[in-house]
Amino acid sequence: MRIALIGYGKMGKEIEKIALERSHSISFRINKENANEILQISPENTDVAIEFTSPESAFENLKNLLTQRVSVVCGTTGWLAKQKEIENLALQNQVAFLYASNFSLGVNLFFRLNELLAQMMNKYPNYKLLLEEIHHTEKKDAPSGTSITLAQGIMENYPAKTAWVNEFSEKDNLVSIVSKREPNVPGTHIIRYQNEIDCIEIRHEAYSRKGFALGAVLAAEFITGKKGIFSMKDVLQLG
Ligand SMILES: NC(=O)C1=CN([C@@H]2O[C@H](COP(=O)(O)OP(=O)(O)OC[C@H]3O[C@@H](n4cnc5c(N)ncnc54)[C@H](O)[C@@H]3O)[C@@H](O)[C@H]2O)C=CC1
Ligand SMILES: O=C(O)C1=N[C@H](C(=O)O)C[C@H](O)C1
């Protein structure tokens, strides 16, 4: 498979390692400095593009790639207000598009665990809920994309929770997401239900970026040759 890497930073480089190990080749390495080269990417030279850039650049990159009829796996967080527009563009151009806030198998298992726990805790409202995310100090967006997915999973299974906020709050209808930034943390997410008697906590801690990169390459392998909108649930078949 010929992969174009859009964003050759921490994630782009990690993805390249896994892609080469799995016998794929890299058709383009695009960064801020050579961003215009994205216009040269086409189905003639590339099977799939993997986009990990920044919240400010993702929408424009995705628009260009999909209009040029190139299927895309996107891991950039913080641009989702325009997700529907991008999905429609993929459908119009008859290519595949897959976005995930987190590509690691562990986090996708954790998403399911979070939903099951929310379903149970829905019956015990005297437990206060807190969602905490810790990431490296270079991260540009807050809260993390993963914590937004976790908050959505809670709201779908705990109807009294109707919105999330990115601050500490004890309001019963809110999912409170607290974001912390510390050096060299690849990504940690904690969900805690607590009252004066005890505490129930689930936690996912990434030890490196390898799981994110492997998941992104598996997603690229999965969508190659397909058309439509996909998610990591399709790739990992977690049920
Ligand atoms: N979904 C997931 O599993 C994961 C998502 N992420 C997300 O991926 C994104 C990138 O993360 P990192 O690689 O850690 O960031 P990074 O800052 O190390 O790398 C980003 C790269 O994008 C490039 N870039 C910026 N503007 C560009 C443009 N217009 N065109 C092409 N390249 C451009 C920069 O030159 C830089 O090399 C972030 O939004 C982060 O939240 C990160 C890890 C896992
Ligand atoms: O910026 C990161 O590094 C990460 N971003 C993703 C997010 O916002 O959830 C995924 C992972 O936690 C690492």
Task: Walk me through this protein's architecture.
With 239 residues, this protein is α/β, with parallel strands linked by helices. It has two domains: 129 residues, NAD(P)-binding Rossmann-like Domain (Rossmann fold, 3-Layer(aba) Sandwich), CATH 3.40.50.720; 101 residues, Dihydrodipicolinate Reductase, domain 2 (2-Layer Sandwich). It is 34% helix and 24% strand. The chain contains seven helices and eleven strands. It has a six-stranded parallel beta sheet, with helices on both faces. Strand 9 and strand 10 form a beta hairpin. Helix 1 crosses helix 6, helix 2 packs parallel to helix 3 and helix 4 runs parallel beside helix 5. It is elongated. The chain starts with a strand and ends with a helix. The model has no long low-confidence stretch (mean pLDDT 97). The site of the ligand O=C(O)C1=N[C@H](C(=O)O)C[C@H](O)C1 has 9 residues, from helix 5. The ligand O=C(O)C1=N[C@H](C(=O)O)C[C@H](O)C1 binds next to helix 5. Belongs to the DapB family. It is an enzyme of class 1 (oxidoreductase). It catalyses: (S)-2,3,4,5-tetrahydrodipicolinate + NAD(+) + H2O = (2S,4S)-4-hydroxy-2,3,4,5-tetrahydrodipicolinate + NADH + H(+); (S)-2,3,4,5-tetrahydrodipicolinate + NADP(+) + H2O = (2S,4S)-4-hydroxy-2,3,4,5-tetrahydrodipicolinate + NADPH + H(+).
In short:
One of its GO terms (molecular function) is 4-hydroxy-tetrahydrodipicolinate reductase. The protein has 239 residues and is α/β, with parallel strands linked by helices. Helix content is 34%, strand content 24%.
Architecture (CATH level 2) name of the largest domain? 3-Layer(aba) Sandwich
Strand order of the main beta sheet, please? 2-1-3-4-5-11
CATH superfamily of the largest domain: NAD(P)-binding Rossmann-like Domain
Number of helices: 7
Number of β-strand runs = 11
Main sheet characteristics: 6 strands, parallel
Order of helical and strand elements: EHEEHEHEHEHEEEEHEH
Enzyme class: oxidoreductase
Keywords: Amino-acid biosynthesis, Diaminopimelate biosynthesis, Lysine biosynthesis, NAD, NADP, Oxidoreductase
Organism: Raineya orbicola
EC number: 1.17.1.8
